[in-house]
Design goal:
By secondary structure, the chain is mainly beta. It is about 5% helix and about 55% strand. Helix 4 crosses helix 5.
Amino acid sequence: MSYKNRAGDRACGKRAALLLFGSVSSLAIAAPAYAQDEPGSDEIVVTGIRGSLLSSANIKRNASGVVDAITAEDIGAFPDSNLAESIQRISGVSIDRSNNEGSKVTVRGFGPEFNLITLNGRQMPTSSLQSDSTRSFDFANIASEGVSGVEVYKTSNAAIQSGGIGSTINIKTARPLDRPGFIASLGAKALHDTTNETGSDITPEVAATFSKTFADDMFGIGLFYSYQKRDSRQEQAEVALWRENIDDLIPASTVVTDLRTGPTNTWFPRNYGFGIENISRTRMNGQAVLQFQPVETLRATLDYTYSEFENEGLRQGVGIWFGDFPQTTQVTIDENGTYAFVEDTCCDYSSNQRLNKSRNENNSIGFNLDFQPTDRLTLVFDFHDSDAISKGVDRGNDVFLILAANCLDTKSADFLTGNDIPDMAVTWAGCANPEANGEPTAGSYDSLFGQAGANVNESDIRQYQFAGEWENGVDSGLTSIQFGAGRVNNTYRTRSFNSGQIAAGWYGGNQGVYDDSIFTRVSMENLLTAFSGGGENISPGFYYDWDFESGIAAFEQAFNGGQRLEADLDGTPIFDHTINETTNSAYLQFNAAGDFNNIPIRLTGGVRYEDTSVTANSLQIKVEEIVWVNSTEWSVNRAADQSYSDVAADYSLWLPNLDFSAEIFENFLARFSYSKTITRPTLVSMQGTTSVTDRPKPGERLGTAGNPALQPFTSDNIDVSLEWYYQEGSYFSIGAFHKQVDNFIVNQQTDQIIDNLRDPSAGPRAAQAAADLAAMSMDPTDPVLIHNQININEGNPIGTPIVQNDDDPLINWRITAPSNLESAELYGLEFAIQHVFGDTGFGLAANATLVDGDIDVDVSQVGFQFVLPGLSDSYNLIGFYDKNGLQARIAYNWRGEFLSGTADNQPQFTESFGQLDARLSYDITEKLTIFAEGINITNESQRIYNRYENQLKTANQFGARYAVGLRYDF
């Protein structure tokens, strides 16, 4: 539909462009933050908070399906500084947070991989080192100051690009000819993150917008630039893995308290520890737009978008490790089968440091030609070529060195206390250079091994789109026909580079390698105070921090031949996967309107056809041998040459839709929508290879495989809603939705033999070593003694790594691979109200979403089960005041507990979370505005657990962020 027919789209007296990619108009840049009569116009322009809500309500009302929107309150002034946090104000939209910032969007229970995010109607590439989602543009890559509006399409039609079962979210930026004349804005703010400890307490954010038209509005130029920096700290308590059913590994000498009333599965904590990560990140955005409109019926637009996101995080890991089962002394198994208390003897109090330095970069150049050959026909051609790359920089995005005081006498973790985080207790024995009380000092720290890894992920999209609309020139009957075709070529490549494990003495008495001066003793009394069990309750109450570069330098000289510890991006990658996907599409859609018994009605119906072909080829260095390094550490030997795979697949589908609306009473609308939508598999899941872990410890011998023949998820969707627009800017709505989703892609685990990989700890050599130990009246089950005895029998020095041989048994690997296996039914209710209290300046907005489905998680079950992460209820409450240049807004967002994933094939739940934000601004003049804002001002934090509440996965402590700034509109 040509957006010249939409309400308010002729405000500038210019014919607007047809939106070929989303069937909804572009949003103009808002006027300055005050209401006035524009020269030569009888129209009053309302901006600020009230103007944003008015515009959003009009978009919702005039849409042919179920659409919600958020628009800019002013030039360079989006409601929130983070786009994801703005979008969560919409009913049915929830977010996940990373480092206390909104990062991923869930719509109506469907997570980020089920929501297509476009920029100005274009599929944009995205690349991340933290996520497998490679379909939707990342909110972290674009600053909110450069956005004029965001529209969330909860229903689909033929003219909307496919890919979003949950929704299609279109981010819109400004175009100069949409708002002729001269417009400019300069904003700056000072940000304070209350979690920061090592970076700058005050960091800058700057944004500048420029737009001007020339030659009687024949030419237009628009420019935008922003720079943001944030320093913060993230504190975390974590259990890396809950191991399943390892009861047979518990020694007979262990004192076992079993509180179960019957047989159940059991789960044993692999470790328990704390992470303290200092993070510095910068984001830079740039946009440039050139437009040319020589005549009323022809407009050409050339645009370029650039974004860069740099992240540097240094994480201190502190904790204890369980797994040397001959040393396990006491355990308590609770009624659910959780090993809720574990104590064992020996080993290390770790002090790992891990460096993550990475950069994300996006480039996009696009051209759009909008032509109206007749009064009734509009044609649009659009092309863009875009790329995204994310990569580890400097040493890499996963560089670590493990140091520890290897002198624990006992260590325990207690999950029975009912606290948010469990209790840890340690006692010491034989520490090198101990203090008088027996605790370790800086001179007690030895090293295990170091390693450096870096990934390079690249995504490229080249897209051609053609769209047209023929208008019938009548107000009833068939009003218009939309048609179009397109082609999207999406290429994704991922490479991994790794130094491999570099032995750093394996705790062999190398304390002298590391100078005592690089260590600092740090108290834990202020750690994780937001959680019960944190702060001064944490035992042993201290850890040793150390200077990363100094520690790495000593490691390099002592153990790496003086060579720099880094991932060599110019070397041979461990794997190199490329996926190429090409989709050709065409659509036809009819729009009709009329009256039925004096009830105005609108009808939209259409169908979209798509044909997709996929090729997957990979180069990888396969694992050839398994190496038993020592009693607790394992590694692999890889082939000298790469192997190659090449797989192809294709599919086609039809996507029909029908939207109906009726104004039953004046300002009272009823809607019905049906559509068939799809979400394509992540490109990562379509790799054509199988790989195994490079640390194959017993009980953790895992691998992954891709599946290029994956079919897309398909969903049949029905929406019904009632909407009452009882006064300007005020409405109440209630809606219900139902989704029947087929071809659900699930990760299924199977046991497989991979190549000739064998277990050197379970063959004849190990059996002979056990027999020799028994003959010497020594423990034949102790892995330390067995490892030593194998080397003695083979005439090797004790401590020599043991490589598999042909007599060792083949390893049965647990391989995770995606398959189209399941169907699911999802349904829910949405409520929303928005009310403006006349000319008082006050208003409120509130919404709630209730979702459910036929997928119940059995937390007592081990192995594969089908689940749908993300389902949760949510609500928003927003109060505001906007009058006489003063604007104030306070917003509370709450999301209920939800299943957040199934890592390691174990269900993980994120507990309910509520966040309070506030913003206050004042127009000192018509051009100058000062403002202050607070995010998460109640310091809410986040806790995630496995299966049962006492099976802690992670507890992340967040904090508030505050900013003050000013904006000047020219």
